[in-house]
Design brief:
Pfam families: TatA_B_E. The chain has about 120 residues and is mainly α. It is built from two helices and no strands. The mean pLDDT is about 85.
Length: about 120
């Protein structure tokens, strides 16, 4: 039990409840108390499960970040890293060529539309 209530304390509470509430209202009061205790227990249990899931999720995110970092470190200096660097250089060169071509088209278009030519 959460409050470490012994049998003697529980018996004392039951006798006091019987004296205060009487035999007619005691069963209804015990039933109501049981419902409240059950709801409180379910709420605490759900809260604990939710906290545990959040902690597990955080732990999994940390492990994922560690694995990603480990993979990046292992990939450095390997053929995979070299291929990635080469691909990035080619993409950059292609973007620069595209930009030069667009500028060339723009200047050609302007010279064709220029009535002084």
């Amino acid at each position: 039990m959460p409050f470490d209530i012994g049998f003697s304390e529980l018996l004392l509470v039951m006798i006091l409840a019987l004296l205060v509430l009487g035999p007619e209202r005691l069963p209804k009061a015990m039933q109501t108390f049981g419902r409240w205790a059950g709801k409180a227990k379910r709420t605490v249990t759900n809260f604990n499960h939710q906290v545990n899931r959040e902690l597990e999720l955080d732990e999994m995110k940390k492990k994922l970040a560690q694995h990603e970092e480990m993979i990046k470190r292992q990939a450095e200096g390997t053929d995979l890293q070299k291929l990635r660097d080469e691909a990035e250089r080619k993409i950059k060169a292609a973007e620069e060529a595209k930009q030069r071509a667009e500028e060339s088209i723009k200047t050609s278009s302007q010279s064709l539309n220029d009535p002084k030519s």
